[in-house]
Structure formats: C-alpha cells, structure tokens
C-alpha cells in the first residue's frame, strides 16, 4: 500500500500521530500554494496556517476509492481555504462611500493616463473628481486593504465590480499546479514517444511544428498523435 494512503487510512481510524505525520510531510505543498497568494496584505505565516486547515480537511475527506494521488486532491482544498479566508475574513472592512470614491479615482486615473500620456497625481485626480486631496487619499489607502480578487471594489443599484473583473482573464495558478500534478501522474500510462511529445508540448511549450522537427515527423502527425493521446488521457481521468 502507498505510504501516504496508509497514513490516511490510519488517520481515518483515529491515529493522531499518522495525521500529524501527514501534515508534516505535506508542509512543502502548503508553502508552494501559499506563495501564490503573497502580497495580499496578509502575513505568509497566517496564510500557511489557513492553508494547513485546508490540508487537514483534505486528509479527513480523502476517499480511498479516489483514483488520484493525495497531493492532486489536496491542492484545490488548500487553495480554496486560503481564497475563502482572503474573501471573507482576512480583509479590513471599508465603507461603501470610500469604495465608490476609490473606484471613481481608478477610472479617472485610467482616463487621464490615456489623455495626458503620463500618470496623474493624486491632487490632479482629486481636482477632476471635485473632492479634497485628503479625502481621496483616505479612500485610496482604505481600498488598498482590499486584496482579495473576489472583494467588490464598487457596488451600486445591485451591480458590483470586483477587482478580478478589471484584470485580464487567465487560468488561476493553483489550477495550473493541479493540472501539472494530474498530468504528471497520467504520463505513466504513455509510452516513451508519447511522453516525449506531451513533455515538449505542455512542459517545454513548443509548437506542433517544433515538436515535429524534434521527433522527425510532420506537424499533421504531431496534431493527430496529440489528439489521440489527450483523448486517451481524458478517458482515464
């Protein structure tokens, strides 16, 4: 039986030492995920403690019948716990009026940057909005405490804008961790040439043409192989 699975089974049977050993052995995994949430206005140690709660939940909820490694299952549990903390508990509450002013300042700053070709000063933004510089500074300082991407930065008449809505959409880094862990596990089912193709495409980030040059086959052949491999992997998942 796999070492980790054996520990989980003992933990489920009430063995606290096995549970503690699992936490200790997965400390590196928690820190790996915590690093993705740095610079959110929360101490790294606090994030680690929250992530450890997610790890404990993963240990307690892991089903032995899951055909997946424990680390693959634990990653979204840990990151989800940290996300909930940042969204619900970890931030200072800011009044709606300050949020609204900070959001207006954000839009004004973008407009003036485009118009003037430079970053406007706080005083210039305050002048455009018709507010005192001190009031705008207070609003900007307060909104700076809202680090969670899920926190609304402006809300009016039932419509809210979240910080994540103002960012370019891209795959979450924690999802990339999960995908790589799962893909690494699935690679064991492939033969040497198939593993090499997947490595070049998804780890070395090569194009199909570049992979074809490396393997000595055409781009069309690479495309067909890749589709076939991914289809087989999806079926295994």
UniProtKB/TrEMBL annotation:
Pfam families the UniProt entry points to: Sigma70_r2, Sigma70_r3, Sigma70_r4
Domain RNA polymerase sigma-70: 46-59, 207-233
Cited InterPro entries: RNA_pol_sigma-70_dom, RNA_pol_sigma-B/F/G, RNA_pol_sigma70, RNA_pol_sigma70_r2, RNA_pol_sigma70_r3, RNA_pol_sigma70_r4, RNA_pol_sigma_r2, RNA_pol_sigma_r3/r4-like
Superkingdom assignment: Bacteria
One GO molecular-function entry: DNA binding
Organism: Sporofaciens musculi
RNA-binding keyword on record: no
Keyword terms, alphabetized: DNA-binding, Sigma factor, Transcription, Transcription regulation
Role description: Sigma factors are initiation factors that promote the attachment of RNA polymerase to specific initiation sites and are then released.
Assigned protein family: Belongs to the sigma-70 factor family.
GO biological process, any: DNA-templated transcription initiation
UniProt keyword Transcription present: yes
Full protein name: RNA polymerase sigma factor
